[in-house]
Predict the structure of DUF6741 domain-containing protein.
Amino acid sequence: MSMRRHSTSSSYFPRMPMGDSFRRMSTKIVKFKRKGAFRAGVSLGECLRNVRLSGNDSYTLYDLNVDARQRIYMKVSWSGYSTMTYEIPMQGYGGHVDLQALARRVARACVHYLQSQAMPLQYDRVVLHQLEEVSVGVWQPIMTAS
C-alpha cells in the first residue's frame, strides 16, 4: 500500500495600490455605497446619520494623498454657483481610512455648501456618489439631486 501525499498550495495577491502603473494616468475615485445596496450613492442625510457603508476599509491614507496634518482638501462646486474649498480631517486605523467618518465629514461640508449658497435643495435628496481626485490631495464630490 502506498501512502498518498497531500499538498496544499496557497497564493497571496496583495491589493495593488491606487497609484499602480496600470492606473497612473487616471483619476483616483472613492465610491460610496450603502452596505447591502444594489446601487452606489448615499444621501447626505444618510451620511450624517452614520449609515453603514460597504468597503469600509478599502482605502488607505496613502491612497487619498493625505497631507502631513492628516487632512485632504475638498473643492465643492455646483453648476451656476461659486466654488468653495474645505479641509477634511482624516480618521483611520492602521493606515486605513474609516469610510463612514469620511462620508460624514464630506456630507457636513456639502450641507454647509448648500446652505451657504442658499440652494433650495433638501439635503436628504442630494446623493453623494463618489469623490474624484482633481489634483494631488484635492478631491471633488460627485453629487446629484433626486
Notes: The radius of gyration is 19 Å. Helices lie at 44-48, 99-116. The CA atoms of residues 62 and 105 lie 19 Å apart. The domain at 25-145 is CATH 2.40.330 (At1g16640 B3 domain).
